[in-house]
Structure formats: structure tokens, C-alpha cells
């Protein structure tokens, strides 16, 4: 089942924060979605990936750090 999440965090390089970036657990855009393709920040993150990213902090391969999330 496709799920959308809102994440909060910051960029590793300059520590600038971001809020409410939308991610989804699928690797592609859903037709007839309530979100446009340009609304999706990142594809392919399952809830367990978000939890792990929060636990790892800056020790991920991403250019950003996730500090919290909520299911939409």
C-alpha cells in the first residue's frame, strides 16, 4: 500500500532546516494522487527506513538528516 509521510530535518552541508517535505514508500509517482510529482521530495522510503534514518542521524548516505516524521 502506498503511504505518504511528512519529514522534518536539516541539510548536512549547511545545517539549514526543512519542514514538511513529503516522501513516499514507492519508487514512482502515483496517477490520480492528491500530490503532484513536484510535491514529492523523495521516493522509496518505507516507515522502517525513516525510523532507521532518525536513529542514524548524520550517519546515512543521504545529503540530509531526518529528525522526525508523521504519516499523512
Give a short synopsis of this structure.
The chain has 72 residues and is mainly beta. The protein has one helix at 47-56; strands spanning 4-11, 17-24, 40-43, 64-71.
Question: Which short descriptors sum up this protein?
Answer:
single chain; 72 residues; mainly beta; globular
Set down the secondary structure blueprint:
Layout: E1 4-11, E2 17-24, E3 40-43, H1 47-56, E4 64-71
Parallel strand pairs: 2-3
Antiparallel strand pairs: 1-2, 1-4
Describe the structure.
This protein is mainly beta. Helix content is 14%, strand content 39%. It is built from one helix and four strands. The mean pLDDT is 96.
Q: Output the helix-strand order.
A: EEEHE
Q: C-alpha Rg, in Å?
A: 12 Å
* Shape, principal axes of CA atoms: globular
State the helix count.
1
Domain tally: 1
Strand numbers in spatial order across the main sheet = 3-2-1-4
Overall average pLDDT = 96
Strand content: 35-45%
The helix/strand class is mainly beta
- For the secondary structure, the number of strands is 4
Biggest beta-sheet profile: 4 strands, mixed
Amino acid at each position: 500500500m502506498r503511504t505518504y509521510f511528512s519529514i522534518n530535518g536539516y541539510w548536512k552541508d549547511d545545517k539549514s532546516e526543512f519542514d514538511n517535505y513529503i516522501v513516499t514508500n514507492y519508487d514512482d509517482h502515483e496517477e490520480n494522487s492528491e500530490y503532484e510529482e513536484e510535491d514529492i521530495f523523495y521516493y522509496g522510503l518505507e516507515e522502517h527506513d525513516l525510523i532507521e534514518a532518525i536513529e542514524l542521524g548524520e550517519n546515512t548516505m543521504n545529503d540530509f538528516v531526518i529528525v522526525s516524521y508523521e504519516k499523512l
